[in-house]
Specification:
Elements lengths: L1 E4 L2 E5 L5 H9 L1 H4 L10 H11 L5 E7 L2 E12 L2 E8 L9 H16 L4 E7 L3 H9 L3 E2 L8 E6 L1 H7 L1 H8 L2
Length: 174
C-alpha cells in the first residue's frame, strides 16, 4: 500500500523494511526522543512486526524526493481512534519542510481514508520540537492523561483541518 500527498509517499511497512527501521530506531538521534528507548534486537524487531502487521496498525515509511526520511504510524485502532507517532530517520530532516509534509499527508490518510474520529499521541516534555509540531497541527493537550514526563495530545479532524488550512493550500499548489 502506498499513499501519496504533498510530495510525500507513504509506503506501508513490510518485512523488507525491518532492518532499516531497526537501524534508525536504535540510532542515538531517534532513541533519545523515545519513551521506550531500550536497544532493539533483530528478534525484537521481527516479533514487533508480527504484532503490527494488521488493520489495527498502520506503519509507513515516508519518502520525499526518492529518499526515505522517517516513519509515521497510527496503532492500536479501536473505537474509531488510535495512537499516532512519528520519527525522522536523521537530524538532517528536522528543520525542513519534510516534517509538516509527512504529518499532513498522514493526517489526511487517517481522517480521509481511515475516517478515524481522533488520534492521540504522547510526547516527552523535553521534546520541544514535537510539542510545537503537535500544537501547530491542531492537537490539544489531554491533561488527564499527561504526566510529569509526558504530554498526552488529542487530534480531531476539525481541529486539524482548521489549523492547517493555509499550509495545506500552499502545499496542494506545489
Amino acid at each position: 500500500m502506498v499513499f501519496s500527498k504533498y510530495n510525500i509517499k507513504l509506503h506501508r511497512v513490510n518485512e523488507t523494511h525491518l532492518e532499516l527501521l531497526r537501524k534508525w530506531r536504535n540510532s542515538d538521534y531517534v532513541n533519545s526522543r523515545m519513551i521506550f528507548n531500550d536497544y532493539i534486537t533483530s528478534e525484537m524487531q521481527e516479533n514487533w512486526f508480527k504484532t503490527i502487521n494488521n488493520d489495527q496498525n498502520y506503519y509507513f515509511i515516508a519518502e520525499f524526493n526518492n529518499q526515505k526520511v522517517g516513519v509515521i504510524h497510527v496503532k492500536d485502532i479501536k473505537d474509531n481512534a488510535g495512537e499516532g507517532g512519528i520519527y525522522l530517520a536523521s537530524e538532517e530532516f528536522e528543520n525542513s519542510d519534510v516534517v509538516p509534509r509527512m504529518i499532513m499527508a498522514f493526517n489526511d490518510f487517517i481522517f480521509d481514508e481511515l475516517k478515524l474520529d481522533y488520534i492521540y499521541s504522547q510526547v516527552k516534555r523535553d521534546n520541544k520540537k514535537a510539542i510545537s509540531s503537535s500544537i501547530a497541527q491542531g492537537c490539544i493537550e489531554n491533561d488527564q492523561k499527561s504526566s510529569e514526563n509526558v504530554i498526552s495530545f488529542i487530534l480531531k479532524p476539525d481541529n486539524y483541518y482548521n489549523k492547517t488550512k493555509k499550509i495545506r493550500k500552499i502545499l496542494n499548489n506545489q
